[in-house]
Structure formats: C-alpha cells, structure tokens
Design a protein that fits this description.
binds zinc ion, globular, 805 residues, binds adenosine-5'-diphosphate, 22% strand
Amino acid sequence: MQQQYCDVCLPVPLDRLFTYSLPQQMAGLAQVGARVLVPFGPRKLSGTILKLHEVKPEFESRPVEKLLDSEPVFDAQLIQLGVWIARYYFAPIGEVFRVMAPLGGEVRKSKIFALTDEGRAEIRQTLLGLTEAAEAGLAILKNLDERPMSLDALKRKTPEAAKLIAEFQKKGWVKASEEAQERDPLRAPATKLNVEGVAASTTEKLGKWERELLAFLHLHPGAHPLDELEPMVKNASASARALARRGLVKLTPRMGAIRQPAERPRHQLNATQEAAFAAIAAAIRKGEYQSFLLQGVTGSGKTEVYLNAIEACLAEGRSALLMVPEIALTPQVAGQFAMRFGDRVAILHSAFGEAERAEYWRRIRRGEAKVVVGTRSSVFAPLPDLGLILVDEEHDGSYKQEETPRYHGRDVAVVRAQQIGAVVVLGSATPALETRYNAELGKYQHLLLPERIEQRPMPVVECVDMNQEFLETKKHGSFSRRMVEAVKEKLAAREQVMLLMNRRGFSSFCACRSCGHRVPCVNCSVTLTYHRKDRRLLCHYCGYSEKIPEICSQCGSDAIQFIGAGSEKIEADLAEAFPEARVARMDRDTIHSKNDYEEILGGFREGAFDILVGTQMIAKGHDIPNVTLVGIVNADIGLGMPDFRAAERTFQLLTQASGRAGRGGLPGQVILQTINPEHYAVRFASVQDYELFYAKELQFRRVMRYPPFASLANVLFRSERQEEALRMSGEAAELLRSETENVRVLGPAEAPVPRVNKEFRYQMLIKSPQRKRLAELLTKLRDHARTQEWPATAMILDVDPLSLL
Ligand code: ADP
Ligand code: ZN
Ligand code: ZN
C-alpha cells in the first residue's frame, strides 16, 4: 500500500516535525529528502519530507499542496547529518535543513492576507446591518472568509483592494503573512540566464524569431549568456523563454565567472610535505574514516599538500571538499583551484546570489562537480561519494555560525566524515586548543610541517615595550622609534610592509575632558567609536550612528577629546610619518564587497602600494612575497576581553600576522608593540612557538575546567523588557538549582554587553565534564521554555560557544 502521510520539517523555530497527508496523485511520487509546499496556519511554507508513513495522526492533517522536487535533494546521509546537528546543537530541525540546502532562491516569497476573528465578526455584524463596511469592503472580507489571498488576486476582483486592505489591517480584521511559492525560473532577467539548445529542429509551429534562435543555437552548441544574444538574434530573450516552455531550449541561472589568475606553479613536494601527503593518500586509498591534524608553520606549504590529496582522492573516483575561512575565499584563491581542476570544481560562497548558489548546488548534487571549495556552509555540499574533507585554517572563528543553527563547520566536517567513512584533514599553523588536544589523545593523527618551504627562515620578531617607550620619549605616539626606523628601511629598499591594527575606526571613543563622560549607544551598552571619514560616532554592535557632540551632554563642557586609536587613525598617522609612502587600508569600513577585497589585495600584490594597514583581515592566509616587515601596532587589543579564549585568540592573531612576513625569497621581520611584554600569549607568539603556548594554555584550561576539559554551553536570555529577561533567567536558574552532580552552572548574570539592539541580555554558562550530562540540562531548559511558551527566540542555547560576548 502507498504511504499516505509524510512528516515534514519546516523553517520555523519549533523543534518538531509536522504531519501532512498526501493526496492520491502524490502518494507514489513523494520521496524522503524531497521538498514540498505545505499549508502552515494561513501561510504556505516549503519544507523537507523526513519520513513517509501510514500512521494516521491524532489530529486532522492537512494535505500537501505541491511536490517541489521529483528527486530528493537530501540523501539519507545528509538527512542523518541534519538530524545529528539538530540534536547536538539543540537547533530546530527545520532551521537546520533550511541552511543545509541553499535552494531558497527557487521559492518566491509573497504576502498573503487572511481574515482574523474580528474580521469574521465584522462580516456577521455587517450582514445584520450594524456597521458601515462598504459594499466593496464586504466583498473582500467575504473573499477572504473563503481562503487567504494575495493582494494581486484581490485586486483582480476588487480594484480598490489595496486601500481597503490597509484599512482592514489597521482595524485588525485581516492580517498579513508570508507565503512561499515556487519561483518560475524563466522569470529571471536575461543578464542572469544562460541559454542552450536542446532540440535541433521541431515539427512544432514556431514564430520567425523562435526558429532563428533555435537555428543559431544549433550552429553554436553550448550555453550562451542570454543578454549577449540579443544583438545577434532579434527578440532572443522572449523567444528563449517561449522555447524553454516547450522544452526546446534550456535556461539556467548564470554563475559568477572565476577570474583566471596566473597559473599556480606545481611544486615537487619536499620531504615533510611528501610524508604528510603519503599518510593522507594511504588513508584515502583505504576508504575508511580517518582524521588528521596537519600542523604546519606559516609558509610551510600546506596548500600544496591539500592539492595533492584532492588529486589522490579524484584518482580513487571519489569527490573532495575543501573548506576555507570566509575571508580567505577570494577570486584569486578560487582561481587557483579552477586552474588545477578545471570545470570539475564548484565554488560555494555565501556572497553569491541565491539563484547562483542553487545552480552550483544542483551541479554538485548531479555529480558534475567533483571538487568543492567553499566556506562554512559548504560542509553540507551534496557531493556524491565524498572521500576527503579538508578544513584549512581550522582554528578560524568564521567556521562557527553565530545564529541558529549555531553549528561549527569544522566539527560538523569531522562528524560527516565519520558518518560516511571519509578522510578528514584539519590544517593550521595555530590549531585550536581542542584540536591539538584531540591529536594528543590520538583521536587525530598528527602530521607536522615544522619548517618553511626551501628552509626559508621564520621571521625574526622584535618586541617593543610601549611603557618603556613612553618613559623615554614622553610621547604617546602610534609608532615606536624602532617601528619608524624599520618602516623607513623597507620603503628605501622598495620592499612592502603590513601593519596590523585590530580595531576599526579612528579613535576608540570620544570623552569629555571635564567629567569623563563617554558617548554610549542608545541601543547597546557600549561606547560609540569615532569614524573620521563620516565625521560620526558609530556603534560596532548595531550600526547606530550619531553626530559628534559639540558639548558634553552631562556637564556642558566643550572639551571633547578623542582617545585610543583604530585602523583609520593609523592610516592618518602613516600619512604624516611617511608622506611619500603609498598606503592602502583594509577593514570592514573599506571592504564592502568581495571585489573591494580582491582589488586592494591584488593592488598590493602588484606593488601599487607600499604599506597595507588593516584589521585581522590582513592576517589571514595571504601569500605576498615582497612583504618583509609586519608591524603589530597594538598587540594588546583583545587580551583584556572577558572571555577565556582571549589569550588563544591573541596568540593566533599575532602568529598568523607575523607569518605574512618573509614568504618570498627575502627574509622577514616583525615588530610587535605591546604594553604586556610578559604576557605568555605575547611572549610565545614573539618566539613563534605554538607548542610552548599550547602547553601553558592547556594547563590554564585544566585548572579552570574550560574546554577541552569540559563541555560548555552558553544560555542567553533576551528581551526588550528587562524584567522579562531577568524573570526568564531567574526561572532557569531555579530549575537547575538542584542539579549539582557533574555540572557547574555559572550565573545567570548580565551578559558582558548587557544591552544590544535595545534588548536586555542575561546569560548563564553551563559546564560539565560529560557531554551527555550537559545535554540533559539543556533538554530540561528547552522543555521548560516550551511549556512556559516563552517566545521562540527569547532563550538562545549555544553549544560549544566560541564567543561569550
Ligand atoms: P601555508 O599555507 O602553509 O602558509 P602555502 O601553501 O601558501 O603555505 O605555501 C607557501 C609558498 O610556498 C607558496 O608560494 C607556494 O607556492 C610555495 N610552495 C609550496 N610548496 C612548495 C615546494 N614543495 N617547493 C617550492 N615552493 C613551494
Ligand atoms: Zn562632561
Ligand atoms: Zn548599538
């Protein structure tokens, strides 16, 4: 017998599946892993079938409206992965599947109006002659009483619908909601479509231009950008759409072109690279789960090992996935892979448009792209027969998603490899503490590249104690005398300099000299940062900005001063200290798109600038041979953060930034300015010794019972009303009060930034040496929130949180 019911996960913040009935004509066609359009309240949503069955639900079930896919978009393995994520990260399952497949572009969102109870009452009253709803209005209400409708549909029946609906919404008689509908792919503009001939000729009757287009495509096989055909074939766009409807041509979304870079030289692997590669290749040939940590100092040639491993995997007939940090996936990097693997490679980047991402996704699903290079969410790429997952710069914070579902791409990669029997390689010069510890425990096989390519020396790091500098010069400048001297030398030698200033803006804040008052954000409990270019104060949390005050709002004094420096100020100071130098700046204020990023970096690589100043963006993975000096203007930013990972993050940033120096034939030099020269993160970064740092930091984590010695979850309570946030956090604390065995609950307390975007925030940290125990407590909290009907987003569970801010 055919299964008459399906359990569907929907993109709503509820952790459950919803059961729908399958109409007769769909019953044989519906498949697990395929998407459907279903009614949900007055709305229609697209969701994924996770189960087909014959168990009649207790409640009346509504029928599925439409099957969106004739084949599953998720195979059994991806479904298993999605279910694991929902469980492990306490994320609503529908939201997990929503982020797993970037197919949102295929569904169109539109507004739909439905009658409320008040609206229904109004109809009755009007029919009794009690109120004044005009005839046209009554017609609308009656229409909506039959079924929810879109504005367009209503307008067709009643021309003045727009005005009336607005009125009724105000009165509370109707309410609007979003409805999902399948998007007609033929509607995309010609600039976004490619056209390709399917049939050479046809017996069907065609128009003149349609015939012409078909003939053209027959003579010119392959896909053509639709808009570029217009000059050659008149009416190409309209004809193509008409032909596509009859299946005579194929229209597909156009994908962003990958810029072809200079060919990456193929290198003969050196002995250590070869040893690492051999171990990985052997595991690939075995075809079982095996995990590696590839720990190689900056410039040791990890990328070359990845490329060879991917080739070995393809040679086995299996596909491969390379994950890279968000900011590192530049067209330049993508191009290198396009060069080596041709059109077997697909790039997945969150900056691509929805339709483009959907098209790539489908190509991968069909097995047409056997190599995928992508950011965090590429861990869900539907590669058939995946044999190898590489995670480059595995310590990078961008692998953690900071919104629901709050998964960590690296950890999901390991789980996926485990589930499908693939090889996973985590690579870094500065592995996350957890990762390095797993290698120590033998969970990951440890591969080392201890030296730079061709025995190039590691850069020499010089620390400048800025306290001492002040005592000797009595000046609070951005640059020490050593820094100035070194930059001058490099400029004279026509070599390049990178300067790290890991804070945006001009000054950190503006303060009143008389009373000390600082200007706070109106939405958040942080002070505003001064951005000189816009002459405004800006909030880095919510984006709020305001004019610079002329007088202090507290005491009326006009002695407003700017304190602390940001990257914008360093740029200005450089112009003053080195007027002849060509300076470029890279931070979130100068980078608005991937193109800006590539332009600045490309210009720097080609020698258009002498000095590149910027935030952590400049520290990530770039390989620019002519950079011989890296200056770290202020190594201490970040050390004072109220977060147990502050030292680890600082060490990683300083080491990675230093690693940009001396990557070509010329030796590199690093000058590191600090007021904490004795801090172990600064000290071990300056001798570039990861192992010393690891040993010291591990000791701290052990004593304090932080990861990797405990599992951690952060529970955030938030509300625009402070008493609400307080009440919820209090209830949660009460609930866990008796739970003392094998667990520690810290807080609730005000979050480090107690107010963000007008919301008050309290948080609670739960630590346990046992993952299972932690999950028990989180389940208890979640059940409580559910029975108390807390708003779906009022309590946020963050499992394995990366940032406690
Ligand atoms: P990492 O990612 O470990 O910092 P890269 O993979 O970027 O290092 O390699 C650093 C540089 O060394 C690159 O310019 C690369 O082309 C070059 N390189 C890598 N392997 C070799 C090799 N075996 N012989 C010569 N040059 C190499
Ligand atoms: Zn004042
Ligand atoms: Zn703010």
